[in-house]
């Protein structure tokens, strides 16, 4: 079965990105490229990574007025990513227009509440209620807007899965038991996220910063 792990290749160094992808490719289902990589290498860099033969998750977390986001998504069309992120808090019209502008084969997923935030951070942004409530509210908004799914932490994915069983649910911020969490705050193990209903996992540093990234990816895959 294809691995449900997308490895987050968070580096601006193209040679390192390619080398990492080659090392872990047999234990991951796809490559996630984010802002760091895209700002350094743009669409040409994405194409070079896509040439390695794994699906590309382009994580640009677009968040702007509907017209701007739709035009940006349209401009990204030629690279036809398998998955593309926008922010759910951009609102319903933005989500609808992003989906309408995306290539047919691209899943548009809406980031709800970043896994690097906790309840205190949420309150500080002026949002009342718990992270759980906030994620469910944004997940409902994303479902109504017709995008393919959402990004949330493993703490909420079970509840989202119950409300939206067909949603494509992306869970980042996962850590093998006993691993360091870094800047992530709402963290679960890869296995717990899958058991709760994640469609795919996004995993960066536990693989990319390991002494042997291939062995780390294999070890995590073996727990799923
Ligand atoms: O959209 C994402 O992928 C994302 C959303 C989120 O809420 N939290 C989050 O960590 N991510 C991404 O997931 C990856 C997590 O990396 P690690 O913490 O190194 O495993 C990074 O590339 C983040 O940009």
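Sequence proposed for the structure above (224 residues):
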């Amino acid at each position: 079965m294809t691995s449900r792990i997308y490895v987050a290749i968070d580096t601006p160094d193209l040679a390192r990105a390619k080398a990492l992808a080659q090392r872990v490719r047999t234990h991951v289902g796809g490559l996630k490229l984010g802002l760091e990589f895209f700002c350094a290498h743009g669409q040409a860099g994405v194409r070079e990574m896509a040439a390695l033969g794994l699906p590309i998750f382009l994580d640009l977390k677009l968040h702007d007025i509907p017209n701007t986001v739709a035009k940006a998504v349209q401009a990204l069309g030629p690279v036809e990513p398998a998955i593309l992120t926008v922010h759910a808090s951009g609102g319903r019209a933005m989500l609808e227009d992003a989906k309408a502008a995306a290539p047919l084969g691209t899943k548009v997923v809406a980031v709800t509440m970043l896994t690097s935030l906790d309840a205190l951070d949420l309150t500080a942004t002026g949002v009342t209620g718990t992270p759980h409530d906030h994620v469910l509210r944004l997940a409902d908004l994303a479902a109504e807007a017709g995008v393919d799914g959402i990004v949330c932490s493993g703490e909420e994915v079970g509840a989202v899965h119950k409300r939206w069983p067909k949603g494509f649910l992306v869970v980042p911020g996962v850590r093998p038991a006993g691993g360091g969490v870094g800047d992530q705050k709402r963290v679960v193990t890869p296995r717990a996220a899958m058991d709760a209903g994640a469609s795919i996992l996004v995993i960066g540093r536990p693989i990319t910063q390991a002494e042997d990234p291939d062995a780390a990816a294999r070890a995590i895959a073996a727990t799923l």
